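Incident log, structure service

09:12 report received: a user says their structure output differs between two submissions of the same chain.
09:20 pulled the input from the user's history:
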Amino acid sequence: MATMRDAAMENQPAGEQELRVVTDTMPVAAVRCDREGRFLWVNPVYAKWAARPVRDLIGRRVIDIAGSRAMREIQPFIDRVLAGEQVNYERIVELPGLGRRWVKWAYTPTQEHTGGQVDGWVATGMDIHAAKEADRRKDEFLATLAHELRGPLAPIRNAVAILGRKGPQDPEVAWSQGVIERQIEQLSRLIDDLLDIERISRGKFLLRRERVPLEAAIDMALEAARPVVNAAGHHLSVLLPSERVVVDADPARLAQIFSTLLKNAARHMQARGSINLTASVESGAVLIHIEDTGAGFTPGAEPGVGLTLVRGILALHQGSLEIRAPDSGTGTEALVRLPLAAPGPLPERKVARPEAVPAPPLRILVADDNRDAADSLQRVLALYGHEVRVAYDGASAVNVGSEFRPRVAILDIGMPGTNGYDVARALRTRQGEGVTLVALTGWGQEADRRRSAEAGFDHHLIKPVDPQTLNALLADVVKK
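09:34 re-ran on a clean worker, output below:
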């Protein structure tokens, strides 16, 4: 073996020796392997990872260092590079000198001695464990922040809903109720936007793209933005092209883009201003101008959370946003550019669902360690005619559920001790399909939804939930 390694090192071509001079000074691991997976050369960083001298690695096979289990996982990448493909991937590695860490690998096929046929590959590995850990901690922080912010919003929204069902009110009280409702919506949207921005930055933001008529997305945006526009007494005009304009986009996210820009325009003007939305087709793209008569464009101003999210969503659609002073010289103009969709049929329009019928009285268990959240939800549901029992911890929820045998259990997830998952499993075991389990929580990541489904929950709602939305869900429960 020593003779083979010595020969491999001494008989390297001049070009390869020069390459080794470079790789030996690189701060990343670098190796070259032949088609059989034998190391032809390795740099000092990889030798440190493997906890072996460089000379001891030459002539050995990858499986000797990585082990058979890891080899089964990386063999598909090796097969691809031997087929002539450039390969990049990330995985957790277990190497003697490195421990368990995330490494980013890049494989490049080599053809030095075969006249065009791949004779092996060069691999470079970068330790990205610190970055991965930072991403994980950031994800945990944002998820925890969202949970903590959503918690107090739930009882506030419930209390406002109770006020709204108490009949005619003093005008000042009604005005105050409207202010609170709007601010709750704004805070909830900001929380969701922060999480969406993080998903975009990590490439985990999901788009459901289809061929969308521009006017359909504008109509959805106007429906969302009109309350804000009308409340300030603004005049809103819309002018779209006479011909149908179709884009390849996620309809809900496209409507979110335009409603955010319209709401921004409405909020940054004094009362009774003007907003003009116009669209035109130019060079394979549609240009949407949203112009207002507000205080004016401030070059270099930091974008808010909403605009940051808009830019991110547009980038995923191969579009762009430009904020500038309009040609009129006063106010601000937002210019959205989106590529037109290729010709083709439009998807069938979905029939709108009929208005939800209020649910008949149900036996409902509410469990939440936030007493204000639990008590306020109990009062809201009682106003809808339901019989409600409340528990303030998981153990009590299991006991109350055993005695009360609810038709629906609305459970917080993050209760101390016996958490919502444990309560759900206990109720499902005792009542089977006779109970509908609803998670009502501030935890809204995909992993949280997956875990609640695994625990037996039928629905996963995010705080603060609209009481009317919740009552509509209860009506659906009765139909099943």
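09:41 both user submissions now match this output. Likely a transient worker issue. Closing.
09:42 reviewer note: Confidence is low (pLDDT under 50) at residues 1-5. The chain has 16 helices and 17 strands.
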